[in-house]
Amino acid sequence: MSFIDLKNLLPQSLARNKIKPQIEATNVLVESQKIIEQVWGKEVGRLVEPKYVKEKNLHIRCSSATAANALGLAKKKLIEEINKACQEELIKDIVFWQ
Q: What pTM value is reported for the model?
């Protein structure tokens, strides 16, 4: 009888069931909201909503053009912070829309 090391069981299961991309996308959405609120405050955090990740692009809905502009000016830094929080490069660009 062979045993599977528990630390390898979850990654194998995620890969086999193709769940890893969904978990990574969820992590990106959560971390991006946290970072936005930490840097720009809860007021801006209420005006933006990270919606989904597609092809390494994070799509954020903004209910304010001012908030979209502020985030757009710091897009590169925001991408770096999100990838740093997720501990791998999951995002290459951010798309803002209303």
A: 0.85
